[in-house]
Amino acid sequence: METRSYPYAIEMRGIVKRFGPTLAGDHVDLAVRKGDVHALLGENGAGKSTLMRILYGLYHADSGEILVDGRPAVIRSPKDAIAHGIGMVTQHFALASPLTVTENIILGRTPNFRIDMDAAHAQVQAAAGRYGLEINPRAVIGDLAVGQRQRVEILKALYREARVLILDEPTAVLTPQETHQLFTELRRLQQQGLSVIFISHKLHEVMAITNRITVLRHGRVAGNVETRGTDERALAQMMVGRVTRPAVKPPAVEEGDPMLRIADLHAADAKGVPALQGVNLTVRAGEIVGLAGVSGNGQSELAHILSGTGEAGRGAVRVGEKEITHADARAVMAAGVGRIPEDRHAGVVGDLSVEQNLVLEHLDDFRRGGMLDHKRIRSHARALIDAYQIKAAPGDRIRTLSGGNMQKVILARVLERAPAVIIVAQPTRGLDIGATEYVRRKLVEQRSRGAAILLISEDLDEIMELSDRIAVIYEGRIMGELTGAEATTERLGLLMSGVAHAALGAEA
Amino acid sequence: MSDIFSLTFLVGLLSATLRVATPLVYGAMGEIISERGGVLNLGIEGTMFLGAFTGFAAAAALSNAGVAGYLWLGLAAAILAGMIMGALMGLFAVTLGVNQHVSGLGITLLCTGLALFGFRLIFGESDVLPKVTPFAQIAPLGATSPAGVVLEQYLLTYIAFLVVVPVSWWLIYRTRFGLNLRAVGENPEAADASGVSVARTRYASLVLGGALMAVGGAFLSLAQLGAFTPGIVAGRGWVCIALVIFARWHPVRGMWGALLFGGVFALQLRLQTLGLELPYELFLALPYLVTILALALAGRNVAYPGAYLKPYHRE
Ligand SMILES: Nc1ncnc2c1ncn2[C@@H]1O[C@H](COP(=O)(O)OP(=O)(O)O)[C@@H](O)[C@H]1O
Ligand SMILES: [Mg+2]
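Structure tokens for the assembled complex are given below, as produced in the milestone run.
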């Protein structure tokens, strides 16, 4: 009887989880009331998925405890979690696509060796009706839209009698219409007594659907509030935090010529969903323009187009007078663009040596006749290893280098060509403090040289420290631009959450 | 040439087609069941060979000892050998996560070596080929009417077409084992998260698959020949690998594929005897050419099982 009146469906206490040097969970506490939709809010990498994967038995906490219905629970595998009435829809769908809806749902829940398919279809149909999730049990998963597949996953969890449903960034893959539908379904399920943990980094969604919000930042709880008692501004601040370090802005350089001009640029993401919807942005010689935004708002599509590896739609991108909107990587480089990619493992060839990676993009310059001039490649590598303090030998395979040294190789390769425009994405992600400082110093040096730099980063501190101007991207549009002096985390956070610049001005 | 259209010719052709297709049906069903779980078992050629040898050796020994059911007991021995080889494939490809091509070819080499070595050990190097009295054919419709002659076949052929093919289909699409198998072959993470043991399911499929492959081999030695020769399997395992892709992992399509190959094979045998002025190698190559052609036509854009060739380990 006592459990019925117990207010919390799930409590996680003092959860610690370490991945090598990364502390993904640092004594995290989470309490989910029965019948609530509880948000887990935080930027990318804050540790949301990790925490929930621990709850679902996919990861194991280093320390901490989990209580289900007030009773300590040991969860070592998804099987244990399911037995405790916990269901999870992960970011990557876990369905077998050539199988039917019914087959996916009853998988692992078949009482007899022989399966009566008609009875199974009927059972799934009945469950779908009970929970108000419309789905054709006989449909093959591969033929369904993303939103429908998600519904199948939710139904699969409910079919396993989940009383707590974890949804990891469920709206990330949905169209606005599908999101709307999902919210309607969630409200209905909530009325039936289900508790939901809703992971998101989108403030308006969290405000719209949840009762209570736990904010995570860098693996720690940064806030825990009633949705009714808060607003997007306060949440944004909790999410991104305050600048701890006084931002040392480099001395201003006098205004240069516009080097990179992006006009009304449109593009679609890999799934064909609009990712850029009319981006306008100019970067001048001798300035660093920071592009801030919550990840997934069009940054990577923009970076790819500017690097010649993306597919642009309408609009134009110019470097100086040269249009590179639809140019390939080689042409973009020839136009004077240097690029430091977001995924540094994609920027190098892991099995090749340091010296080979250093000349990879300019093999033509290291030819003698039809052959590569290995002597010159080696001396070239020696010089760069020296100049960029790379801790490696020319013949080392790139794969064996630390992240910092790998990034230095990429920097060396790009910067030695003195490009007029530099596109940098997440240049210090995952680097230690020393390497981070080094990379930032190099960028400032390039700025003094007169390069036009577009800095795409999810690290607001980094953006504020380095940028002369900050543009905020939200759902594929530039929400506003602030000068380095105007920018505060609060203002940026609001723009990042989609609150328009004008509204911001009025409030300020 | 008019012989081609005679009833005798047609009856002979159909009858031979069923006979030639029989070991292919066993092999293909075994391979389909293995691959549905995500494991390409290139051990098939060797497993069939070992099945042919084990079945024959056991039957020969038992027949010498005067045991009455020596053929069926030999078949059981072959099945056991096939199951062991399936389990061994599981050890390499599932437990140890060794590359499946390497594991499978290793099994084939191992089986070939074992069978040849065992053969010498038991039968020595005599000039006379050791023989057993093989399975007799049965003729449910009598052996007088054309249909009756076509259907005068081995019991193992009847079992292949009337039991193994439909049961394979039923097993894959209508049982817990089959559902788990398909899930494990498509998305092992999802299967695991749903509480299905990926390793256990894959082992089961490989053991069952190995048993069927061995029966295919034993059919050759215990029914068709009554003897064992080093060339007895002659690439039938490889043909099965192609048939499985042609069949897109579906048992019934696999059966049609086996019949197609069997038909062309039987046809070329008969064409050879017509005395056409063509090198006989050309006729011999014909079934394989047709296999390649069928594969090229039907094998394009096939959807391989999602986890094909991929070992699975948690986290
Ligand atoms: N399996 C893993 N191995 C190593 N590091 C990981 C792993 N999973 C997550 N991390 C790290 O833990 C941190 C938190 O990640 P995650 O929980 O995925 O964040 P979120 O879901 O909030 O975006 C990140 O720094 C991430 O790189
Ligand atoms: Mg996540």
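Chain A touches chain B through 24 residues (CB under 8 Å). The pocket of magnesium ion (ligand 2) is lined by residues A 48-49, 91, 168-169 (CB under 6 Å). Further analysis is deferred to the final report.
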